[in-house]
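Workshop exercise sheet. Pairs work together: one partner reads the sequence aloud, the other fills in the structure field after running the prediction. Swap roles for the next sheet.
Pair: D.N. / O.F.
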Amino acid sequence: QVQLVESGGGLVQAGGSLRLSCAASGRTFSSYTMGWFRQAPGKEREFVAAISRFAGSTYFADSVKGRFTISRDNAKNTVSLQMNSLKPEDTAVYYCAANTRAVSLFVSYPMDYWGKGTLVTVSS
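Structure field:
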């Protein structure tokens, strides 16, 4: 069993930056491809970014490519999402998620674990 706890959300002005973190419990963190999703008010949850088990590969949604980066520290059981040049349309609850698929297949399969989310609000 893995528990995921997100942190780092908050209110930021457009053009600003924010760094989200996800702390995972358990000793099998490196067994999982990790990723981030988001859900804006009134919209469906959408994929944001994913990172392979040993950080060799990353994958981003087109909407955040070039603005967001994803990283992980397997020694600390954490995955982070650095968000730069934020836009009001990035406002959403951001969720950390994990499954055991290759990063290229991450979104094609159900997630094994989800965090409870952290709210990011970008003001214009």
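Discussion prompt: The mean pLDDT is 96. What would you look at next?
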